[in-house]
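Supplementary Note 2. Why include the ligand at all?

Several targets in our set were suspected to adopt different conformations when bound, so apo predictions alone were not considered sufficient. For every target with a known small-molecule partner we therefore ran a joint prediction. The input for adenosine-5'-triphosphate is given below.
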Amino acid sequence: MSAQQVDLTRLVRHSIDSIEVRARRSGHTLESHLPLRLEVRADAVKIAQVVDNLLSNAVKYTPRGGTITVSLRRSPQNATEGVDDPQWAELIIRDTGIGMSEQELEGVFENFYRTEHVRKAAIPGTGLGLAISRGFVRAHGGDITVSSRRGAGSTFTVRIPVAGPAAP
Ligand SMILES: Nc1ncnc2c1ncn2[C@@H]1O[C@H](COP(=O)(O)OP(=O)(O)OP(=O)(O)O)[C@@H](O)[C@H]1O
Ligand SMILES: [Mg+2]
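The joint prediction is reproduced in token form.
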């Protein structure tokens, strides 16, 4: 993996711009809350792929008229915050879409996993996006988590260390 200084705000805004036309055409509202700048050490190509996949999922699995909210912020890695504490860059992508039940959520990061509902509805996809995304984020020393309820939307949270991946 090649880590360089990356402004996540710029990267996320670029992903939002890329999906905006598609979102508008399908009647979605896109909202974003981004800081002016958030510099991290990361592999820009891989993180862009993660953000693109999460945004395209949010659009794909949210019916017409839904809202997708993207928030980015810096947050402390430890509960007791100190001056030199490591920081996360935290990206939250929330949608008001079809959501997933507790049972459906179990396999969501597995290769080729697709919920039965999505397969029956013939929504296109291979079931690899989230598995690949999680691999990329973990290679940075971070992780992706999800909370969701069937019919009530999903929230995906990506955390990556601002300082970048630890040296191997
Ligand atoms: N935002 C979401 N809302 C509801 N279900 C979701 C959401 N994101 C993912 N899922 C469920 O998790 C499955 C896996 O998602 P993943 O992104 O890995 O694959 P995919 O979108 O089906 O295909 P692709 O490989 O093209 O990304 C989806 O098929 C869907 O069932
Ligand atoms: Mg996907």
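The chain has one domain: 4-75+85-161. The mean pLDDT is 95. Comparable summaries for the other entries are listed in the accompanying table.
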